[in-house]
Amino acid sequence: MKKSPVFLVTEEDLKQAALLENAMGRKEKKDERRKKATEGSGSSRGGGGLGNAREIKIKKTKKKSRKDEDSDDESQTATTNKPKEREIPFMSLEEIQDVLRKHVPDAPDELLIELSENLIRPLTKNYQEVVRSVFMSSTSSSSGASRKQTMKDFQEEVSTLYNNIRLFEKGIKLFTDETQNNLSKHLLKTVCTDITNLIFNFLAGDIMMAVEDSSTITSEVRKKMLNKFQEESRGPLTKLNSSLAGKSIEEFLSCLDAAADACGILVKKGDKKKERQVLFQHRQALIEQLKLTEDAALVLHLTSVLLFQLTTHCMLHAPGRCVPQIIFFLSTKIPEEQHSLLNNYQSLVVKQLIGQTKQKDDDDVDVTGDLAEESGKASDSIRKELQELSAKIKDFVLRPRKSSASEE
Fold this sequence. Notes:
Blueprint: H1 11-81, H2 93-103, H3 109-148, H4 151-172, H5 177-204, H6 219-228, H7 231-243, H8 249-263, H9 272-292, H10 296-312, H11 323-329, H12 336-365, H13 370-398
Helix pairs in contact: 2-3, 4-5, 5-8, 6-7, 7-8, 9-10, 10-11, 10-13, 12-13
Organism: Engystomops pustulosus
InterPro entries: Ufl1, Ufl1-like_C, Ufl1_dom
GO molecular function: UFM1 ligase activity
């Protein structure tokens, strides 16, 4: 059997082993400390990061809450500083007491004071509701009117009526004093009133008093509007309104010019070319009306006015009661045969009107017998004559003829 070698451990070997063991132990401890240090620094960084995140989150939350508080403060301030809606007062306590005192003069003052205190709140509430509803309806109607009628359209309409009045005035001046006064009054009551109402209604839109149809405005309504208009325009408009009750077209036009300047209304004055166009259009409108009508009185009226324009080249706006004066004026302007036929036609029209009035009176008293029969026969005879002459009368202006140079 082979013997195993024997290893002898000397003292030197023991020292080296101890040194090696110590070195290994120190190395392991050093690695362990390094590892712990590494883990510790990583966790501290992570912890620091989380700490910062929490801190940032807290700061952001605090900032956000401050903003919310600021916005709340601003909203509260805005709410506090917001002015209260203006309320239109109805009556004061003293005024209510005065009204109650008039109706119940024997009531003691204590009772009147108590009643007024109980009444003022519901009365004011009802009054404000009515005012609010009127305001809303006026605003909607005013906005609708403003869409339909712009300032430009308004000024064109005013200019058209203004120039028509100027042209009608030329025709009026061809008559004598009495007829001239009657024609002037008629023009003031019709076309001049129309243009005045048009201006008043347009300006009334700013004070919520405008109406849908300006032709429905009366003198009383214009006076109410005047009290609401601005002071600088109230004076000229008052004079314009007053001139409607006069007899002078020149005075009215002067007041109209002043009112237009005060209210900033641009009125375009017509030139010769524009006047010829207006004359032609006016004549054509009357001719179309004459073609359609069969009423003898209207045939006489339209024919007389058209003959006046054809012979004088002036427009005329006349009431029915001035037709005899127009026919008399035409005696030197148209052929004698035409004038004689026109006079005959006028006599028949007058007889017809008298007969119609008499027949109405007879119907009221229930007239019968021979008298009623004779009246009926006379009316039929007049009606037949008028029908026969109507075509000839219309031919005075409807038959083809060369238009005058001033109206083309």
